[in-house]
Amino acid sequence: MKIFCLGGAGNICREAVLDLVEYSDFTTITIGDFNEEEGRKLVAALHDPRVDFVKVNVRDHAATVEQMRGYDIVMDGTTITLNGLSTACIAEAGCHGINLNGFGEEEASDEVFRRNGKTCVPGFGMTPGVTQMMAMHAANQLDEIDEIRVSHGAFRPIAFSKSIAETTTYEYDPDLPGRVVYENGAFIQVAPFARPREIQLPEPYGLTTQYIIPHAETKTLAQALAHKHVKLIEVRGTWPAKNMQLVRAMYDWGLMRNDKIVVNGAEVGILDCIAQYLYNSKEGKETELYGYSLHVEVTGKKEGRSYLHTLTHTHPASDGSVPGWEKLRAYTRNVGIPMAIAAWQLANGAVKKTGVITPEEAFDPAVIFRELARREIYVHEEVKPL
Predict the structure, then answer these.
(1) What would the pLDDT profile of 239-274 be if each residue is shown by its tens digit?
(2) What number is the average pLDDT over the span 281-296?
(3) Residue 104 pLDDT > 80, yes or no?
(4) pLDDT (0 to 100) of residue 346
């Protein structure tokens, strides 16, 4: 089997590529990236005869489709703004597809995937992705669901890559229509920094204040668990405290609107200027604590009794005590590895449904948890009667 790793030279997707080299039986692992220098460096570093490189530009639809033809699956590590374009290429090329973001542009290609008998699963990293598996694992043990609260802490620099800087500005865009909660059968739009809640994450992360964010889990879990009469779904997140301080200040001062200003005769967005500064600054590329932390609460009833299921996850420390998990890699591996696991499952026929489908429809939580544990990423569960 052959896999095409689109955006494979990026900071996160290269971790997925590394996982495929170590754990999968793909006969060809192609890194497809616009950055030829970084792509070829990665091929040389991996030193595996299965790995090769092609330069690809997803804005050239026809050329990209031809480059993808003949591959069993495309693992898509491109940015949010490119996912609609990249998914259209994957669908037309007749490949399975999976990506990290899952923000909805993929739905436009559903009919093409179905016609070709292929499957696309948008949004499978840590969150969205593993968070849905955690919620479903708990929900499968309950007859009815009252509330689901998904939370995460992404401890990484604010702009270690352009795609990460883009995620930051996207999630706190004041006009973003996708920032919703699911409450009593309806999706309710909320503003940035809505519904603050204190979440106790496993050490070393500790107590964090988290806010509603626009993530796929709100809609996919509502769809998957409608038959269990779920009443409330909220998805929250946080970044390092300094990141949150900066984003809050930019929001309060109106900078997140990205109003146009004129600099040296050129019209640019004020937020675009800030993002460019952060991407090129020391402050934008460093943070004190690195890693990822998930926290999912599911309340519901089993045989008439109420229970609270709390699921968290842990991974090797970022302090250098575990080789391969130092600093930023403690974050990037957490995001990239689940996508690689899901790509291998999808390519091996574990998913029977075709078209664009959700993680909840695609994967068995127990299988995902087992594979994560092989990589020293562990899911923990505590169940309490209410």
Answers:
(1) 999 999 999 999 999 999 999 999 889 899 998 899
(2) 95
(3) no
(4) 97
Classify residue 384 as exposed, middle or buried by CB count within 10 Å of its CB (0-12, 13-18, 19+). exposed
- For residue 52, what pLDDT is reported? 98
CA distance 154 to 294: 9
Tokens of 189: 């739009």
Amino acid at 200: Q
Ramachandran angles phi, psi of 277, nearest 5° = -60, -50
Are 345 and 339 contacting, i.e. CB atoms less than 8 angstroms apart? no
Torsion of CA 6, 276, 164, 148, to 10 degrees: -140
> What global pTM score does this model have?
0.94
- Burial of residue 349 (CB within 10 Å: 0-12, 13-18, 19+) is exposed
100-119 burial, b at 16+ Cβ within 10 Å, e below that, comes to bbbbbbbeebbebbbebebb
Specify whether the CB–CB gap between 348 and 383 falls below 8 A: no
The one-letter amino acid code at 33 reads: D
